[in-house]
Amino acid sequence: MGDPRLKETRWDPAFEAALVETWRSEPELYGFRPDPVKPVYVIDTPPPYPSGSWHIGAVMAYSTIDMIARAQRMFGRAVLFPFGLDRNGINIERTVEKKTKKPLHTWDREAFIEACRKEIQAIGQGMLDLAWRTGLSADFDHVYYTDSDEYRAFSQAVFLELWPRGLFYRGERPTFWCAYCETPLAEADIEYEERASKLVWMKFALGSGGHVPIATTRPELLAACRAVIVHPDDDRFAALHGKTARVPLYGHEVPIVAHPMAKPDFGSGAAMICSYGDMVDLQLFRELRLDPVKVIDERGRMTEAAGSLKGLTVEKARQRAIEDLESAGLLERTEPIQHKTPLCSRSATPIEFVSSDAWYMRQLEFRDELRRLAREMEFQPARHRQLLLDWIDSLTIDWPISRRRYYHTEIPLWYCKACGEVLAPPPGKYYRPWKDPAPFDRCPKCGGAEFVGEDRVFDTWMDSSVSNLFVTRYRTDPAFFEANFPTSLRPQGREIVRTWLYYATLKSLVVRGTRPFRNVFIHGLGLDARGRAMHRTHGNVIDPWPLIEKHGADALRFFAASETNPGDDFRISEAKIGGAGKFITKLWNVARFISSFDEPPAGKLLPTDEWILAELNHLIEESRGAYGELNLFLPSNRCREFLWNLFAPHYVEMVKARGYAGDPGARWTLHTCLRGLLRLLAPVIPFSTDRIWRSVYGGSVHAELFPRPLDGIPAARREATDAILAFNSEVWKAKRDRGASLNVEWPGVAVPAALEQYGPDLRRMHRLV
Ligand SMILES: [Zn+2]
Ligand SMILES: [Zn+2]
């Protein structure tokens, strides 16, 4: 028995910051080193968007990805765990616009891009610091940025490769439009929220005298009303089929059409069809060949066509329309209603349908193949595959990929000034058609020599959707790409299945014809203690820094792994994170005790030693299996149970005396269990396990492989577990019941015959005489 090699009496979360520095100085630990005998494992890490503060749910999600990366390394794989920052997009533009109080379209484009670049650099650094401090073992020496010339050129190159195949087209049609972001949106950019609204009951006068009541939530669209529909089976309106009605306030006559899309139990059963209130309007304008009129412009203001409402915002116009209806005697009543409102997922602004010219990528024609690829990927948890399949089923339009913004990847196209031909340059370079000279001499169609650059940019998902191609080195390292595509793993949140996962699947389909990933890991959302999503607007965002400083990143990580089954949402509670901290303290205390014994090369094992080693073997098998299936819940909980319920209270107590007496069998077994436990826990709690390993065994636990079950240990020893636990509890209870201390001599109790092999250790432990 010597001094413990683990010096400090307590685990202190402050040790973690020092370990971060140690890891930084040992780049061989986490760097990607291809090795001819090691299989490669490539992770398509989600590049986070720098937003000032990373909320705790995100920190936990990235910790989970890190646990997978670490586990794969410990299986002996060469792990490419890249880290990128997704810096393109509207968020940073909005930040600059707000700070300077100058909207994007009033800026000089060059100056605006410069301002965005400065702003985003400052924000990104804080995020990298947090990623380090959380213990992420990513390849931070090669962080990639989606707004770099290199990445943008890559994104453009994939587009330009596909260009000759006719996968992109330009069209003028009504699209989802966000007036706040001033840009068309894809279906994937839209969220639905129940919002309070007013159902407005109006009177539409009939040519034959009298009126038909119509209820709507969009009275500001009256000027654009071109028809009224009623259900063909709705007897109340049977006499009105083919008649006309007069639109209130504007006075034009519109046809009354019997149509099955009318809902007899909404409002009066008769509905007005306007350009455009919702998807039903869109469909019926097409089907009934109605003439649309544009009453809302790209900035969300009413147009000339809205008459006296001209210039008002949609919301003000709605209020004014109600007042006007009332003073004209055409308002029956208004009633409050909860209305499922489509919102822009970035700005939470209600979306409109605005007719605009946009570039589209074909996607509807690929739906069958996309479903096939969805089925070819392994999902963890398996049930989340359905999210992707449902999304594919729900698509109704092609993907609008152009945006009228600046801090994005440019669409690399030019137009011939003379004949309008669209010209695409060869893939490879980073093109900025709004400022670069056209890379053409002559128009191949008309011979014209003057060109205009496309001034629009890509939807940011055009960039994100090629991240897996980028990290597997498509176009830059053909041998690596051929060997490592499909990418081993796509880890991501459930909320971006319809965007990031879907678009990556679409891109990989058209580029390679195959599934993009072998495995898709969908993690749950971190919710607040009451089960609500964390959102700045709810004021319930938890800053991870103070929690990490108080409890340590390991406690946070252990909580993230052990709290919920993979894929489920989890409620974040500081008390439970503190509880995870107690487990780490327990591990530290046990390790410190064991570290005071030397580690003999081997020793003769007694039945008690074989018993705990049989339990260890079982733990190793279960944990390896679970890590292999990307399940972190099981190994973290099994290791905790092993330490807390078996190893520390029973085995350690049973062999303590033998250990003190210098028995090599007990000492060897104590160390073997500690080594096994530390390696099994290393992916989840990389700090404390490494600190212990370095002090007790030297080197880093993160350079170790997972343990394998020991040979020669009879698995049947585990059959004694219940009886050992029961006997120990019984003696402890008897001593406590008599107010005795646990280490007093205890006469008159015999070890049951079934446990006689363990008798010597049990008698020493309880001092049975
Ligand atoms: Zn928006
Ligand atoms: Zn031309």
List keywords for this structure.
alpha/beta, 22 helices, 39% helix
Folded structure, characterized:
The protein has 769 residues and is an alpha/beta fold. The chain is built from 22 helices and 25 strands. The strands form 8 sheets. Strands 7, 8, 9, 10, 11, 12 and 13 form a 7-stranded mixed beta sheet that branches. Helix 8 runs antiparallel to helix 9 (385-394), helix 18 (633-660) crosses helix 22 (759-766) and helix 19 (664-681) packs antiparallel against helix 20. The chain starts with 14 loop residues before the first helix and ends with a helix. The model has no long low-confidence stretch (mean pLDDT 94). Residues 416, 418-419, 421, 443, 445-446, 448 line the site of one zinc ion (ZN).
